[in-house]
Amino acid sequence: MHPDTRVIHIRVPVPESTPLSPPLYQTSSFSFEDPEPLADGLNHPDRSYAYSRFANPTVRALEDAVADLEGAASGIATGSGMGAISLLLHALLRTGDHVIAQHTLYGGTHATLRDMADRYGITVTFVTGHDPEEVRQAITPRTRILYLETVANPTGHVSDLPALAPIARAAGIVTIVDNTFATPLLCRPIEHGADVVIHSVTKFLSGHSDVTGGIAVFADDALHREVWGHAVEFGAVTDPFAAWLTLRGLQTLPLRVERHAANVTRIAEFLAGHPAVERVLWTGSADHPSNAVARKYVRGFAAPFCFDLAGGYDAGLHFQRSVRLIRLAPSLGGTQTLILHPASSSHRQLSPDQLRSASIGPGTIRIAVGIEHPDDLISDLDRALTFPAPISGQ
């Protein structure tokens, strides 16, 4: 063959050994000697690899790994956490359907449900998540989904999944649980009745602030097969490199979660005793409204939490400008400690009434504690809290 042809037709031999690191299959397509396995790969989510929008070995390795951690049957990796949320809602809902959801949801989920209400006439009933009778009363003939978060963003609200999921299952309703904040190490919602578990892979699973991704894992293969068809049509799947980075980060998840949890405890206790802080909403505290429920099925407290500054909105803006080591940034679950002011950022889509319902005040700060030395974090927090915000107008 001519050099022009040889540089195109490169073959990678399969060795008689197993790589220690999952290989990166950075390819859009796969070739075949026989047309039958090609067709099989385009029609089934777990057969041959034909085109990476349908399936890819690196992506499937991630899907299988997270499904295994969650005790699920199968998974679909997506380009972002919101990609997983939007895929599920659009795949499972039809015009006029009804959703039951807890009040304290991630702002992006609220926005998606509101958009679907405007476009498709989807109706939503919001519940506290603590009262089984409240869920029973909310069910209608068009209810299709019960949507919960293991640990809510940013208030740490925990719904009583073991009490609510059986009610949904008896009514033929799919229970979806966003488990991003707890991770599969601290909670496995499928063990408590969830049908689908979502993660923003961007957060703890990848863990290094270098990936944008999401995943949905399914207790039942039939539901996975149904949603997979929509994933292929929507093009919501992740790319192989993001999956490969996530697989690399996943290997240190137990070590990172252990350090996150230890640091969170130290920081929450420090803030609870600081005079510039009015309230600390940390699920691990005995006075948190969800503490008792959380201890039923969540095995630790590594998630971000929030605290309210005495000076309200202005104090929140001043505090964000005053930290030095801690970074002002969206997202969470990486190695660095990050803060955010929900009222002006992650939950900006919510009305004042919705913010109050979600226990988010004008001076609420969310802190996603990283894995730095806790003494350095406390020193930075203390300095930023010690110098008061300037009086408005000066």
Write up this protein:
This protein has 394 residues and is an alpha/beta fold. It has 2 domains: 21-250, Type I PLP-dependent aspartate aminotransferase-like (Major domain) (Aspartate Aminotransferase, domain 2), CATH 3.40.640.10; 253-386, Aspartate Aminotransferase, domain 1 (Alpha-Beta Complex). The protein has 15 helices and 12 strands. Strands 1-7-6-5-4-2-3 form a 7-stranded mixed sheet, with helices on both faces. A 5-stranded mixed sheet has the order 8-9-12-11-10. Strand 4, helix 7 and strand 5 (174-178) form a beta-alpha-beta unit. Helix 3 runs parallel beside helix 10 (240-250) and helix 4 (81-92) runs parallel beside helix 5. The longest helix has 20 residues, at 253-272. The radius of gyration is 23 Å and the shape is globular. The termini are far apart.
